[in-house]
């Protein structure tokens, strides 16, 4: 690794701005972008160090690409480098999502805009299925991992178990299995490397923890547990601790709670938010900002309040990403000690396998709510399942979804051209219908 004193902070600042503005395409594209700039172009890190940092970030809850940027920034310039890299990775997308959220509530009833979101919903269905196939192809080797994926799907779709419980159970199975079958103690494959130190890191971790707790408990104390802002702070703080497996995995949890438990938004609106997040740079988990925006907007009653909505969006982003900095600053100095720890790697692999089932549940949930207007409860073996009414299918959305699948799997179109194409089809169908 190039010494952090040899890299001017101003140069690093320009690079993090560049990455933040260009980080489209989900975590795979974002990680590839960072690799090209940091390893290939700038040569600030070598390949093994970059990959080890990535493996560590994948062990953490939260968006791994944003945490990788934070970790690399910390490695190069300490706490200020980590803060700048992590914040600039979030900021452009967060501002764009906020602007699009304003347009959504102000113009969402206009037929042309409504048609645009019909097109985005259809595109999102194809994107989620593509993510399911890609992640499943990498993660489901062997015998146990496909079983964990099926178990994860059934736990959510059939038994309606909480997402955090699925993640915890899979991790424990993987960790216990590795320890049970290991021929040598976990982590003994090579001696533990030295701890990496950067001044002020422990203090930064404590500040992040203090700000996070002060936000949650301060809102509970001042506004009470029945306030929408208290609900946002508590719910998204819990989510920040269990977001293993990327945004697609946790979206099922957010959708379930936001739609069914809190009533913050409608099922179709979750698809709209995901479509907005797909069109902007930054972590896909920024879709939660859209959820917080609508939750606070509707809490104001008839007509809504854009000021309260903006505060709700800001609070959601704050409690979602503040823990990401906490995890990095708390663990980064000791990250090298995780090298070769087979039990932790096995736990992560088991969680990733179960997450494939979680994403399958998400894809089915999105498809039912995007393509059908009504659902009915069917009892099978004593279990109540929500299934669509076949006669309520939305033919326009179905037709655009078929086109989206052809574009993705037949023509292998990229995400942004796909979204643009489907949005134009949706607006065209709205014009024809008017």
Could you characterize what this model shows?
73% of the residues lie in helices and 3% in strands. The model is unreliable at 184-190 (pLDDT under 50). The chain has a two-stranded antiparallel ribbon. Strand 1 and strand 2 (383-388) form a beta hairpin. With 434 residues, the chain is mainly alpha-helical. The chain is globular and about 60 Å long. It starts with 8 loop residues before the first helix and ends with a helix. It has one domain (5-388). The chain has helices spanning 9-22, 26-41, 47-58, 64-107, 111-139, 144-157, 163-181, 201-223, 228-240, 247-261, 267-278, 287-299, 306-331, 342-371, 395-410, 415-433; strands at 375-380, 383-388.
Features:
434 residues, mainly alpha, two-stranded antiparallel ribbon
Brief write-up:
73% of the residues lie in helices and 3% in strands. The chain has helices at 9-22, 26-41, 47-58, 64-107, 111-139, 144-157, 163-181, 201-223, 228-240, 247-261, 267-278, 287-299, 306-331, 342-371, 395-410, 415-433; strands at 375-380, 383-388.
């Amino acid at each position: 690794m190039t010494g952090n004193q040899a890299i001017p902070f101003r140069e690093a600042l320009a690079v993090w701005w560049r990455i933040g503005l260009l980080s489209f395409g989900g975590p795979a594209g974002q990680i590839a972008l960072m690799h090209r700039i940091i390893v290939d172009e700038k040569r600030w890190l070598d390949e093994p160090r970059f990959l080890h940092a990535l493996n560590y970030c994948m062990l953490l809850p939260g968006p791994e690409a944003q945490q990788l940027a934070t970790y690399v920034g910390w490695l190069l310039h300490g706490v200020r480098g980590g803060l700048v890299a992590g914040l600039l990775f979030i900021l452009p997308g967060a501002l764009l999502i906020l602007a699009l959220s304003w347009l959504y509530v102000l113009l969402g009833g206009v037929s042309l805009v409504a048609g645009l979101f019909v097109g985005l919903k259809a595109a999102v269905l194809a994107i989620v299925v593509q993510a399911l196939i890609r992640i499943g192809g990498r993660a489901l080797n062997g015998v146990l991992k496909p079983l964990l994926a099926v178990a994860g799907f059934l736990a959510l779709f059939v038994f309606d178990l909480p997402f955090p419980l699925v993640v915890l159970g899979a991790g424990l199975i993987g960790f216990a299995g590795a320890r049970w079958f290991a021929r040598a103690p976990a982590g003994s494959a090579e001696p533990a490397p030295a701890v990496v130190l950067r001044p002020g890191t422990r203090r930064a971790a404590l500040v992040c923890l203090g700000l996070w707790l002060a936000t949650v408990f301060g809102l509970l104390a001042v506004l009470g547990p029945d306030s929408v802002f208290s609900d946002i702070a508590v719910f998204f703080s819990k989510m920040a601790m269990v977001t293993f497996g990327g945004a697609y995995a946790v979206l099922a949890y957010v959708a379930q709670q936001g739609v069914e438990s809190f009533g913050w938004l409608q099922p179709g609106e979750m698809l709209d938010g995901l479509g907005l997040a797909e069109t902007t740079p930054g972590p896909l988990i920024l879709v939660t900002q859209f959820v917080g925006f609508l939750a606070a907007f509707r809490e104001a009653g008839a007509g809504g309040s854009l000021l309260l909505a903006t505060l709700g969006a800001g609070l959601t982003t704050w409690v979602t990403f503040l823990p990401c900095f906490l995890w990095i600053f708390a663990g980064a100095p000791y990250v090298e000690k995780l090298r070769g720890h087979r039990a932790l790697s096995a736990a992560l692999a088991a969680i990733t396998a179960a997450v494939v089932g979680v994403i399958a549940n998400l894809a089915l949930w999105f498809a039912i709510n995007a393509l059908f207007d009504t659902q009915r409860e069917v009892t099978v073996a004593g279990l109540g399942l929500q299934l669509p009414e076949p006669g309520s299918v939305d033919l326009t959305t179905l037709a655009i979804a078929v086109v989206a699948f052809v574009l993705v799997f037949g023509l292998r179109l990229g995400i942004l051209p796909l979204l643009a194409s489907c949005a134009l089809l949706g607006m065209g169908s709205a014009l024809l219908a008017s």
